[in-house]
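User: tokens in, sequence out, please.
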């Protein structure tokens, strides 16, 4: 990668640096910030990380930020890839992933390639299906963040969870 950090904590580009290099570095910086925080206490921190990760994709992706019972980050997984206007999300696979991580809580996220971060009826329906499925194994959904190029929408802050 063509990005270096000096002893004063400043970053500079070195050699050939692609857009992919810069985005990967930005995602790593945000991941490090979340890990330094230790736990997710502010939904905006999670939204920033998830926006960097999936906002500009040309297709839908469904990600889950898995947390322990103190809301410390266990993992962030891309579980499903979709098309330009949707992604099939299978509750069984989400429950399997939660059990593999030994998660106690989750923040769901997916992007809208259209750029609009408004939750759809389908988004609300799958959130409810996943809430019911994960509840059976003791995993709470804290939020479902819809990511667009123009920003993010927290379904929890809208009272949809």
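Assistant: Sequence out:
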């Amino acid at each position: 990668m063509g990005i270096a950090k000096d002893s004063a904590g400043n970053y500079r580009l070195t050699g050939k640096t692609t857009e992919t290099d810069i985005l990967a570095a930005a995602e790593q910086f945000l991941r490090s910030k979340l890990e330094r925080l230790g736990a997710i206490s502010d939904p905006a921190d999670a939204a920033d990380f998830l926006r960097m990760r999936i906002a500009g994709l040309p297709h839908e992706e469904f990600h889950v930020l898995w947390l322990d019972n103190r809301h410390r980050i266990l993992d962030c997984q891309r579980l499903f890839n979709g098309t330009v206007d949707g992604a099939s999300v299978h509750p069984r696979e989400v429950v399997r992933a939660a059990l593999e991580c030994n998660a106690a809580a989750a923040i769901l996220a997916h992007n809208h390639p259209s750029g609009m971060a408004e939750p759809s009826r389908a988004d609300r329906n799958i959130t409810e299906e996943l809430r019911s499925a994960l509840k059976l194994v003791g995993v709470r959904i804290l939020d479902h963040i819809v990511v667009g190029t123009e920003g993010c929408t927290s379904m929890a802050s809208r009272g949809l969870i």
